[in-house]
Write a structure and sequence with these properties.
251 residues, disordered N terminus
């Protein structure tokens, strides 16, 4: 199979090439500069070896310097890095130095969102079974589940109330907010999406203070049919204040 340019460039990114001084800081020593040049030379040698038909695996590139910065500053940093390394991003920088990077901005979920009661299920590439974000079958819910007074799931003794319920919510709003999850959706083999979701819902059968029941939504991984890879795309997660909360990545 003929090698693909995105695969080669992604492999270069996997080598953790240092960023140029203009965008991502300066080299700390001449030795680092020499190492950087060695890696660039390696990429050029690979590109020149047309007789080598092995396809190099795609690798995601992370832009860690963006974390904690504003969306506008993050996009500027990434564009500067791509322009300064145009040979490594063929097709994404035009003759005038403008980049054609596509930024896909996603806001991270918050407890006030309308779909707060949905648990995200990271699936396998086939989108049939749950593997979890750590690829170990574990599924997590980021918030507490708040039960109204009189709920059938309300702790049946004061000792359990005191030990399981969030004290502030209990005494201010008369609701019992409890930790739920994590859930193990790998029982030797990964559970199906439906099987994992049933496991989760059965563990918390009571409605919360808003009358909602715990439910699920699928979270297909990069490279799946629902989330295909795009080497010209950078995915950026921001919070409600517009700050980047995770290192943006290509894909």
């Amino acid at each position: 199979m003929k090698s693909t340019l995105p695969g080669i460039l992604s492999a270069a990114a996997a080598l953790s090439l240092p960023a140029p001084a203009a965008a991502f800081g300066r080299s700390k020593a001449n030795a680092e500069d020499a190492l950087f040049q060695d890696k660039i030379d390696w990429v050029h040698r690979v590109l020149a070896q047309e007789e080598d038909h092995r396809e190099l695996p795609a690798v995601t590139t992370l832009f860690s310097e963006c974390q904690g910065k504003s969306l506008a500053l993050c996009e500027a940093l990434i564009n500067a890095f791509v322009r300064a390394n145009a040979p490594l991003f063929a097709g994404l920088v035009d003759a005038y130095g403008s980049t054609e990077i596509k930024f896909e901005v996603k806001q991270v979920r918050e407890s006030q969102d309308e779909d707060y009661y949905n648990v995200g299920l990271r699936t396998n590439l086939a989108e049939t079974h749950v593997v979890g974000i750590l690829n170990d079958g574990m599924v997590f819910y980021p918030w507490k589940w708040c039960l109204p007074s009189g709920s059938p799931a309300w702790p049946d003794t004061q000792a359990l109330v005191d030990s399981h319920c969030d004290a502030a919510e209990l005494y201010q709003n008369n609701v019992c907010c409890i930790e739920v999850g994590p859930w193990d959706c790998d029982v030797g083999t990964p559970l199906t999406v439906e099987g994992c979701c049933n496991l989760i819902k059965d563990s918390v059968p009571a409605a919360d203070v808003n009358g909602n029941y715990l439910d699920c939504h699928t979270d297909p991984p990069l490279g799946s049919d629902s989330n295909p890879e795009d080497p010209g795309r950078v995915i950026i997660h921001v919070n409600s204040e517009g700050k980047v909360v995770h290192p943006p990545k290509t894909g």
